C-alpha cells in the first residue's frame, strides 16, 4: 500500500506543509512530521517516547536537518518556519518525490540537476521498541524507478542490476556525497514547547570508537565499532538518557562532532490556529558527518533510541531483521484480512474468493480497483491508536543516574501490561467511551481478541456504583470523582462486550463479568451518581445534574456544558434497552449451560416496559422523528439531532416499525453529509455550519462541535441502520435485489472518505468536519472513532457481500 506524491506536489509548499506523516511503535510512542519537512505542531518529532518515571510522553528528538555537499555545491534539505514567518532553509524545493510505503515515509531528493543523484531518506519504527530509524542512501536517477519499492541495504542483499554481488573494487568509485546531519534535540513533554533560556541544561556523552584511545577509563566500556559514531543525551536531574547513533560502513567515516548550540523561535503554525503556544526552541548537541558513495548499496542509518544502550542497537543484522519482521507483520495483517472467513461452497481459498473481501468501487471500470489499497490503509490506520503502557516504574542505582548502561545481550521488546486505545492525534487522549465504541473495529475486525478481552477485563475493575470512568488511570494520574461523569459509558461497555462475545463465543469470560454487569444494571435502576436513575413511572432512564454534560455531547464553554441534554436523552434509553435485552439473553444462555441463579425475567420485564414507553414518549408526530430529550428542565427537546440514530442502529433496536423508516428518512435528508453526519439539523435554532476556529478565542470551537459539525464515525451506525432494513420485500428475488441496492449504498457512503487518506494526516481520517460545504476538518489531525468505524463498516459490507454471493450460488 503506497500513498505517493510527485515533484509537482512536493515542490508546492502549500500542499506539503499540510500533509503529515505518522509512525507508531505500539507503546504510545511515535514519530511524526510533514512532507515538507516543517514541524507544524508542538507534538511533531522524530522520537516521542515514555521514559521510565515520566508522567506523559516526552519529545526527545524533534528533527534532523540535512546538508549535502555534492559536485562542489552544498544543498540544504531541511525546511524550518520561524516566528517572523520566514523559511530557512527551504529544502522542500529539492524533494523529487514522497511516498508512504507500508506506512513508512520515504523522501527522495534530487541533487545536481537532471543528471545528478537522488538521496533517499526512509523513516520507520519497530513495534514495542522506543526507537526511530532514519536511513539514507544514494540512488542513480536511472535506478530510481527500479528502486522505488525496494527496501534499503539493511534489509536487502548487496547486488547490482544483473543480480550479481557488486564490489567497490570492480569499478572506479565516484566522488561521495558528504552528508552533514543536524539533529535538533529536545527533552520535554510532547505537548509543551521548550524554551532554551529556562530548560534544564543538556549533557552530551560522546562515545568513541574501538580504534580510538581514551584517557578516561570509565568510558572504555562504551567504545563503538569502527564506522559507528554517536552520543547519549541527558538533561539535568533526569536519569533517563536517549541515544543518537550513526551506523555505516567504516569507509563512510561517520563522526559525531559536539556543538552545543541553541536555535530559537521555530514556529508551529497549527498551534497558532488553535490558539496554543506556538514557538519552540531546539538544541543542537552536535553534528553527524559521513560520506555516502553513489553506485553502492551503502546505507547510513541514524538510530534514535530511548532503550538501554546495547550493541544490538547498532548491529546491521538486528536492524535488518527488525525491518523485515515489521514489513512481514503488516503484510500478514492484510493477508489475514483478505482470507475468506466463510468459504464459498464448491470453491477453495482462491484469488476470486479473496476479492470478495475488497471493497468494489462503483465509479471505476474495474470495480475492485483500489480495494486492496483502501483495506490496507484502514488496517494501518487502526494500528496507530493501539498502545500498551507499562505500569511499573524503574529505579536507578545510586551514583549512576547520569550514565547509560551498556550490555551485549539482545534487547527484548517491552512487555507492557496495560492496553489503551488512543482517542486522537495529537492530543493522545485516553477516553473510555471512544475506546468501547471503537473496539469492534480496531480490535475485533483485526482479530486482536486477547487484547480486547484484556481491555474489558481491566476496565471492569473500575466500576463504582455501576458507573465506569471517563478514562483509565495511569501510574501518575489516579482516578478521581470527576472522572465518573458520564451516564452512557457503562452502557457502551455492554455494546463492546456483546461484539466480543459474538465473535469469540467466550462465555466463560461472560460468566466472570456477569456479577458486575448485574450490579451495574441494579445501580442504574435504584439510582447512582449524577442523577442517573430509572423513572418508575415509565421505565425510562434519567440522567440529570446541574452543570454537567453526561452524554457524548460533553463539551464545555466557560465551565458550562454547551449541550447539557438533562433529562432523558434518546440514545441513553436506546442503549439502556439494548443492555437489558443483552442481560436477558445472557442470563438465559448461562442458565442453559448450567449456571443457576441467573433470572432473565426481571430484565425482560424492564426491557418490555422501556420499549413500550419509548414509542409513546419519544415519537414526535408533528415532525415525524424522535425527541432528542424528554422530561428536561425546559420540557421536551424536539431538535432534530443525530442521537436518535441509535434507536434504529443498535443490534437490538428499541424503535419499532413504522417509526424506524421515518426516522431514517429524516436523518438522511437533514444530517447526512459526504464526511459523516451532522450533530444538529441546519433548520434548527443554534445550528453552526462551520467550526468556530478563532485564534483569539480557541474555546469557541467547543461551542460548535455538537451544534451541527459533521462527525465521521456516525457513518458506522448510519450504515447499520440502513442495512437493518434487509428483508423488506416479500419474495426472495426482490429481497436479493434490495440487499444489492443497500450494499452499494453503503459502499457509496465510504467512498468519499477514501480521499481523506491522502490529505491531512496521511493514511488516516479526521474525526470532525464542518456541517456545511465546503467541509473543512477540525484542527485535530485524526481520530480513533473515525478509523474504527470505517474499518468496522467496511468489514460489515464485505461480510454482507459474501453472504449475498453465497445465497445467489445456492439458488442457481
From TrEMBL:
Residues 151-167 have a biased composition (Low complexity). Residues 394-404 have a biased composition (Basic and acidic residues). Pfam families: GDE_C, GDE_N. Residues 415-792 form the Glycogen debranching enzyme C-terminal domain. GO terms for molecular function: 4-alpha-glucanotransferase activity; amylo-alpha-1,6-glucosidase activity. GO terms for biological process: glycogen catabolic process. InterPro entries: 6-hairpin_glycosidase_sf (IPR008928), 6hp_glycosidase-like_sf (IPR012341), AGL/Gdb1 (IPR010401), GDE_C (IPR032790), Glycogen_debranch_N (IPR024742). Residues 149-170, 392-411 are annotated as: Disordered. Signal peptide: none annotated. Residues 19-295 form the Glycogen debranching enzyme bacterial and archaeal type N-terminal domain. PANTHER family: GLYCOGEN DEBRANCHING ENZYME. This is Glycogen debranching protein. It comes from Dictyobacter alpinus.
